Amino acid sequence: MWTRILRSVRPGALRSVYFGSTYRQGFTTGYKLLPFTLAGAAAATVALYPRAVALEAPHSRLVTETKSSMELPVYITTDATKVSPDGVQLRLVGMGVRTVTFLGVYVYVAALYVDEKAVAAAKPAWAAGNLDLEAQVRSWIEEGTACAVRVMPVRSTDFSHLRDGLLRTVQTRAKDARVPGAAYTLDEAGEAGVSRDVQELKKLFPRCKVTRGQTLDLVVEKTPSGSYILTLQHNGNTLGHVESDPVPSRAFTVPTGLLLAYMGERPDISAALRASVAAGLQHDLP
Predict the structure, then answer these.
(1) Quick one: which of 263, 267, 266 has its CA closest to 275?
(2) 58-282: which CATH topology?
(3) Which of 84, 122, 152, 286 falls between 20 and 30 A from 276, CA-CA?
(4) CA-to-CA dists, residue 56 to 6, 25, 93, 260, angstroms
(5) Which residues have C-beta within 8 Å of that of residue 2, sequence separation ≥ 6?
(6) DSSP secondary structure letter of residue 59
(7) What distance lies between CA 165 and its chain's CA centroid?
């Protein structure tokens, strides 16, 4: 904060006139009109007072993923969802490329976005040490915090390619959930619901190309009834929803299984993304 004071004395005036303005970082720019009367003057004079100067506009700031040179916004506002009719504003926590290992080819950039208040509340614990990343995101989802993974192709592809990759990811996570002792469990009672939701997810993808820099957002939210909703959004427009049955805590669902796959090591989608998210929580956000 810094203050600028301008004082001037008009010759012949009965008293001096004081002009003051205060600048505070973080407020929007603008002006206030303040009328005042000079002694001996026949009419009122209007002075412009600068209200504030914004040194940075964080809600429009972009950051660059260095390997792909692709830019991502620090904040996104989702399209309407079944849980949030007005959309929800989410903050970038970390980002990284998905690489085809044996070719070393960058496929897409993935980024995790979470409600900013939840991120701020988690940072003190992370500052004390590196915690379990998947467990952290799982707790956010189960507590009702909106989370999203943004996927941005590095080169042109098509929705069928992205769809097949996401479906394989769900199938891998569902297989792991059938193993006793898994963080999420899938029993016979839940199999029918998961099978139905996999088919629903498959139907959401249009038959068209996705060019470099376009966005595919996987937004996951919990409903008051205890179900989980995955909202698929392309360039900010909703393609559709997949809603699980209401389930007990730690029951596997397609929405939670898909999003949490990006934070786990099986399948290994992007080690760079996991490292960036952990660094954002433990040290500084992008």
Answers:
(1) 263
(2) Chalcone isomerase (3.50.70)
(3) 84
(4) 25, 8, 19, 33
(5) 23
(6) G
(7) 22
* All structural domains of the chain with their residue ranges: 2-52, 58-282
Q: Can you give the pLDDT of all 286 residues of the chain as single tens digits?
A: 433 333 333 444 333 333 333 333 333 333 333 333 333 333 333 333 333 333 344 688 999 999 999 999 999 999 999 999 999 999 999 999 999 766 778 999 999 999 999 999 999 999 998 799 999 999 999 999 999 999 999 999 999 999 999 999 999 999 999 999 899 999 998 999 999 999 999 999 999 999 999 999 999 999 999 999 999 999 999 999 999 999 998 999 999 999 999 999 999 999 999 999 999 999 999 9
Strand-pair category, 105-114 with 216-222: unpaired
Q: Token match 């690489």: residue?
A: 99
Task: Check if the beta carbon of residue 259 is closer than 8 Å to that of residue 147.
Answer: yes
Q: Which two tokens stand for residue 214?
A: 């376009």
Task: Write down how long the chain is.
Answer: 286
Q: What is the pTM of this model?
A: 0.79
* CB within 8 Å of 159: residues ≥ 6 apart: 205, 206, 207, 208, 209, 210
Question: In the numeric block, which tokens belong to residue 230?
Answer: 């995955």
Report whether 71 contacts 87 (CB < 8 A).
no
Query: Does 50 sit behind a cis peptide bond, omega within 30 degrees of 0 on the bond before it?
Result: no
